[in-house]
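Appendix B. Chain record.
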Amino acid sequence: MIGTRENILAAAFLIAGMLGGNVAYAQAPTQGTPPATNPAPGAKGQTPPAAQPLTLDNAAPPVNAEEDAAIKAYRDAPLTDVPKKLQMGEDFLTKYPQSRYRVEVLSWQVKGYLGTGQVDKMEAAGEKELVLEPNDAQTMAIMGSALPRAMSSNMTAEQKEKTLKDAEQFSKKALELVPTLTKPANITDEQFIGAKNQVQALAYSGLGLVAFRRNQYAEAIPNLEQAVKYDPNPDPVNYLVLGISNEKASHFDDAISAFTKCAAIQSSLSATCKSGIEEAKKLAATQLSVPK
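Structure tokens predicted for this chain:
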């Protein structure tokens, strides 16, 4: 496992905070307001499909006072007690599997499972949410960045490649969606730009880590450079991997710079990055001493 997950979790909650609690950049309804039913297929300029007869199978779930009370209690649960809120979310989805609020709950479960190190559950919740909300750039960016970090040595080659492929696809799709996002009315332009930058930072981090895991250091470097560029709260993991990638590519000055920035951030990686600085300096000196 590369580094820690705290930076991804902090970024995820920062995005949610800047967006006033709305799920997936205002793609979900405002809290307290039941969402509208999904529009019928057929975008502007396309011929709409024939009308389907109304049946109980395709009718929207009825308004349920008990369900509304349950989602209010879930929203009111303190963010500081992540295990409790996760359990409340699991209980809610078990009791109301077709709830109009399940996208909101699943979106939060992704963050909560990440924060408690339950990567398998994070991935499962994210996949369920993306079936319902396929354009949730935030969830895609979180998963794209988290999955390559959580890879273990116990995984088979096939499992590793599937994880990397999934992370790459999530990260690329998140970046494609960023320009299409619309600003919610309840935040400033500056906050919206900051939230979009955070999504891009996570997505580029995912692409950089995927390339790094594949030993494609020349490809990892520009993606990790974009990640640290967009991130308002630099993640030491990105600087550490950027330093290693530059060292592997024999860009020793760039490696020293990245390790130095990593070491300056107070984290569990500080000592590792300080060692990286000294190692990169030794390799640079060795390179200079080799006759051409």
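Further analysis of this model is presented in Appendix C.
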